[in-house]
Specification:
The complex is a heterodimer.
Chain A lengths: L8 E4 L5 E6 L11 E6 L6 E4 L13 E6 L2 E6 L8 E9 L4 E4 L3 E5 L1
Chain B lengths: L2 E5 L2 E3 L5 E8 L8 E6 L5 E7 L6 E3 L7 E6 L4 E6 L8 E8 L7 E4 L3 E5 L2
Parallel strand pairs in B: 2-11
Antiparallel strand pairs in B: 1-3, 3-8, 4-5, 4-9, 5-6, 7-8, 9-10, 9-11
The chains are: A mainly beta, B mainly beta.
Chain lengths: 111, 120
């Protein structure tokens, strides 16, 4: 069982917006701004989409945004496109082990 | 262009050893900490180990502590993972990733992975 809890799946139609949640504790998500999000298309390596809660790396579409409230971080994808279909993972620093932990992953289906 | 290319995966018996390598290019290797992250078949991501830019600091997940050793050779722009006493729970695609060893704890580039299988 992962230290960070994500919904197993979410879905949306092209053009819609979806939000993926990532719930932890005050020892990880709630206590630090070291939350990041990764996109993993089927059969491919993960790609960094958001770092430090809400920052986008160069080259990542501004349709992707991140936020945090309390012990829950969120990834929002607006204007859904077919190419967004992938697994999404959150991660956070955790003081309980002084390392990084990942969420269990969320499969995004674009209908 | 940043490139990370893993190698060294294969089939090994329980209790056996394997050494993974990651060749880095496209950036100043000794400016960055590096990490290994694994993904069991059909499962999620699991951070395994991290090493500082100069190799002076290493960290491990509890699941591999005492069995795996991370190292690097900055002259060769390479990262390594020595895996000993391999167990049934270790099979996975092992990714080399840049960063993650220290603040701000994210991985900004990933390789394509090398597959480790443990089978008798």
């Amino acid at each position: 069982q992962s230290a960070l809890t994500q919904p197993a799946s979410v879905s949306g139609s092209p053009g819609q917006s979806i939000t993926i949640s990532c719930t932890g504790t005050s020892s990880n998500v709630g206590g630090y701004y070291y939350v990041s999000w990764y996109q993993q298309p089927p059969g491919k390596a993960p790609k960094l989409m958001i770092y430090e809660v809400s920052n986008r790396p160069s080259g990542v579409s501004n349709r992707f945004s991140g936020s945090k409230s309390g012990n829950t971080a969120s990834l929002t994808i607006s204007g859904l496109q077919a190419e967004d279909e992938a697994d999404y993972y959150c991660s956070s620093y955790t003081s309980s082990s002084s390392h990084v932990v990942f969420g269990g992953g969320t499969k995004l289906t674009v209908l | 262009e940043v490139q990370l290319v893993e190698s060294g995966g294969g089939v090994v018996r329980p209790g056996g050893s394997l050494r993974l390598s990651c060749a880095a290019s496209g950036f100043t290797f000794d400016d960055y900490g590096m990490s290994w992250v694994r993904q069991a078949p059909g499962k999620g991501l699991e951070w395994v180990s991290g090493i500082s830019w100069n190799g002076g600091s290493t960290v491990y997940a509890d699941s591999v502590k005492g069995r795996f050793t991370i190292s690097r050779d900055n002259a060769k722009h390479s990262l390594y993972l020595q895996m000993n006493s391999l167990r049934a729970e270790d099979p996975a695609l092992y990714y080399c990733a840049r960063g993650g060893d220290t603040e701000p704890y994210y991985f900004d580039y990933w390789g394509q992975g090398t597959l480790v299988t443990v089978s008798s």
